[in-house]
Amino acid sequence: MSRSVLVTGGNRGIGLAIARAFADAGDKVAITYRSGEPPAGFLAVKCDITDAEQVEQAYKEIEERHGPVEILIANAGVTKDQLLMRMSEEDFTSVIDTNLTGTFRVVKRANRGMLRAKKGRVVLISSVVGLLGSAGQANYAASKAALVGFARSLARELGSRNITFNVVAPGFVDTDMTKALTDEQRAGIVSQVPLGRYAEPEEVAAAVKFLASDDASYITGAVIPVDGGLGMGH
């Protein structure tokens, strides 16, 4: 049966791979994007998740076209890397506002329809950096680590309503962002990964798709690493 799926930040990279995976399975997929031209084949809604009113309007449009969101993938995020001594207040708060508070906004709004339906699946896209730490990424790591506590609290709060909350923590993924690194930087990263390579976006999407499937109906509050072993022990 075709389900109503929303992927925030679904216009590129991991988000686009996730959107395609659900669309290929026959689901009705909506994506949000903040800038640029969205990919074809989806209900694309321009939305900055740091703006509560834009989030509300995006949901209204999606609900009119696809019905209430049954599966939410909170993927939208930003980085503003900087060493602590050079990190400005804005560098810190803007990353938190998008990655953490923005996730709160989209999850809270999706929850309205899920509570009525007495079912729902929410998957938050965190990062190995949120568990392992990374020099120069204190803001990003803090925002991604916070998603774990957020998801686990909601798993306890809403489990009795048949709504699951899980976290996927990707490692280094072969996207446009990582392609911009030098060969030396890429080699340095790969040397830390037990599997000796970057992840493909589709490998992250496969874990997300599983958590939204019937096979994962008894999984909630979990953190699933898709990191080639980089974060083992965390």
3D architecture notes:
The protein has 234 residues and is of the alpha/beta class. The protein has one domain: NAD(P)-binding Rossmann-like Domain (Rossmann fold), CATH 3.40.50.720. The protein is built from eight helices and seven strands; from the N terminus they run βαββαβαβααβαααβ. It has a seven-stranded parallel sheet with strand order 3-2-1-4-5-6-7, with helices on both faces. Helix 3 (89-117) links the parallel strand 4 and strand 5.
Task: List the keywords.
single chain, 234 residues, alpha/beta, Rossmann fold, seven-stranded parallel β-sheet, 8 helices, 16% strand, globular
Q: What order do the SSEs take from the amino end to the carboxyl end, as H and E?
A: EHEEHEHEHHEHHHE
> Approximately how much helix is present in the residues?
40-55%
Unreliable stretches covering 5 or more consecutive residues: none
Report on the biggest sheet: 7 strands, parallel
Q: Tally the beta strands.
A: 7
Determine the CATH topology: Rossmann fold
| Gyration radius over CA | 17 Å
> What spatial order of strands do you see in the largest sheet?
3-2-1-4-5-6-7
